[in-house]
Amino acid sequence: MIHTLYARLAFSLTLSLGLVGLVYAIFMFTTVQKNTQYAEQILNRDLAKVLVAERNLVQENAINKQALKDMFMAYMNVNPSIEIYLLDLEGKILSYSADPGQVQRNHVSLSPIRTFLKEDALFPVLGDDPRDSHREKVFSVTPIPMTNDPSGYLYVILRGEQYDQVEQLARDKELLHLGAWVVGIALLAGLFVGLLVFYPITKRLRTLSKKVDDFRQSEFKESPVFDVQQGADELSQLEHNVALMAKQTVHQFQQISEQDSKRRDLFASLSHDLRTPLAALHAYLETLQIKANSLDTTQRYEYTSRAIQFSERLKSLVDELFEMAKLDTLDTAPHVERFSLPELVQDIIQQFEASANALDVTLRMEGDTELPFVQADIALIQRVFENLIGNALRHVEKGDGIIVSIYKHKYMVEVAVQDTGCGIAEEALLHVFDPLYQVNNTHRGDEHSGLGLAIVKRILTLHKSDIEVSSVLGEGSKFRFTLVF
Asked: Residues 39, 118: one domain?
């Protein structure tokens, strides 16, 4: 059985060439036969006329029947390769030189005879063979006794039955010999071409298959080195695409591994962040239960307020965690719409105005107030501003300021949220967007969860935008990003 692609290609090519060789042999045989008929009819075109003249078949404008009979007898013995027939003007066979009982026709078609007698006849012209009701052969014919006033035709089959039998034997032997040579040469040529042409192609496929299998055995972690050949053929394109696919697969596996590692770290950190407010909430509720009868109204209110405070912190942490998980899903896509960015910023500033006033912090907007509508998810962009402004409020003190600036730049708007608070240390700038990372709070005792800036970055990534941060310790921080019109 043929299992390899190389063997199948070689077999297919060998078989194809063998069939081509057989068709070629048949075509050559047909062409040679036709050329032989042409040559024989041209050379013997006047044979019937010569026979009439040499055998004195016509005497005093009449057919000499005795001479005709003698001619039939002579040519049956001397030249059995031809057959002679006497026809009337309707094509009826009157007499012949063949053996009795072997003639199967009573009439011969006159149409080929008339074509033959034309001076511009195109040879070979085939006429009816009286010995076969379906076969046609080359012939020679002449009117008798006179061309101008014929009473019949002398019809000579140039290749009689005996000639056909001998020729058939020789032809079969020659055709078998020729066919064997043609098929043999075709098979050798097919094998040679298969080795010469198909081997380099299948070798590249085998190499590619082995590297892909090695890639699979490495659990898609080690990208194989592909020797991609420059060219436009399908194999080069396949090698190039497989190389890109392998590289992309390794990259995705690395991303998945990194995300899995970050997720484990996130859950580890989250367990502590959830445990702290949960433990505090449990402690205050347990105190209220144990000392319910000994606590006065002020103490009970204080314990209740602290429990609610930790409960709200716990709720905020869980809400942000679910929001982060939702943004990390693969099917998350922003609902893009057109809206006025200055109006959205003004609404958010009003939302945080009370908190800013309570801290004695200035909160304002500056920049272009007449801007074209931006294209973004208004709910997600609102969440971005809320997180950035809320983060700024946690890092400012009395007398500081927070500025939200928006400016048009070409086909986009540049947005910045800047504060004059405590700033961020240089070594911490690379981690401010990591989940649960909190600046200047290694024990995570602050009231925020550390997911706010991570959510901001994820939202802007979904909008195909990036956020940059710059800060000077003791002077404040600035977060910048862009939105398209």
From this structure: yes
The number of domains in the chain is 3
- Rounded Cα–Cα distance for residues 414 and 453 (Å): 18
pLDDT per residue over 305-327, tens digit each?
A: 989 988 988 888 788 778 877 77
Burial of 86: CB neighbours in 10 Å, binned 0-12, 13-18, 19+: buried
Let me know whether 323 and 399 are in one domain.
Answer: no
Range(s) of the domain holding residue 321: 234-327
* Residues 12 and 156 grouped into a single domain: yes
Which range (99-113, 207-221, 369-383, 394-408) has the least confidence? 207-221
What angle, 0 to 180 degrees and rounded to 10, lies between the N-to-C axes of helices 452-462 and 378-393? Answer: 150
- How many angstroms separate the first and last alpha carbons of the chain? 66
**Which of 113, 46, 62, 45 lies closest to 54 in space, CA to CA?**
46
Query: Average pLDDT, stretch 81-107?
Result: 84
DSSP character for 427? G
For the chain, what percentages of helix, strand and coil (3-state, to nearest 5) are there? 55, 15, 30
- Which residues, 6+ apart, have CB-to-CB distance to 78 below 8 Å? none
* Distance in angstroms (rounded) separating the CA atoms of residues 201 and 460: 48
Q: Please indicate, yes or no, whether residues 16 and 149 belong to a single structural domain of this protein.
A: yes
The enclosing H or E element of 49 equals helix 47-54
Neighbours of 390 (CB within 10 A): 13
- Do 338 and 373 form a contact (C-beta atoms < 8 A)? yes
- Whether 300 and 448 map to the same domain: the answer is no
Asked if residue 199 belongs to a domain, the reply is no
Nearest to 457 by CA among 405, 383, 371: 383
Q: Which of 436, 414, 433, 422 is nearest to 471 (CA)?
A: 422
CATH number of the domain that 474 lies in? 3.30.565.10
Same domain for 26 and 147, yes or no, is yes
How crowded is residue 417: how many other Cβ atoms within 10 Å of its Cβ? Answer: 24
